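Format is sequence with structure; example below:
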Amino acid sequence: MSAYATQEIAATAARLVVEEGLEYGPAKRRAVKQLGLNNRTDLPDNDQVEVAVFEYLSVFCADTQPQELVALRETAMQWMQRLQEFRPHLTGAVWRGTATRLNDIHLQLYCDDSKSAEIQLINLGLPYDVGAVPGPRGAEVDRLSLTIPCPALGEPIGLHLTILDKDDLRGALKSTSRGLPERGDLSAVQALLTPHD
């Protein structure tokens, strides 16, 4: 398949990521369908889509996205402080810097006891749903999803807490192929929110 087709898929997927808040995988598959390409078409990798997302944001969302990203990161930081005992790490679009108001916040919690985070939410009187996602060892792990206020955006947003074992933290600090960490702890998120000269 031509490099041009790969770029087209990446660009179309990037638009879906930004405008509809899709994850990269579903966005790539929908892009193939929208472009009328064969289902067996080679897909761009996530790094190619991410480059296209940053390009799309700089062209179409430069006046709104930076403020929306800060609002989401500040909200993520507040929740990381609330859940500090579970060693929270921010991941996903809010961590990578590609998030808009359509994106949810994704935190990974590294717990001594898998039920302790749920107990904390119950004690705080927060309703949540329990789902399952693939964990780092291949087995499914619990993901707790709740709707929280984001005052800076003036609207509710989704918060997803993936429950991992504290021993998984050792493998959590690996980097992406672009050399960037895949997730960040509270101090890393605070650093992102610190103005740089």
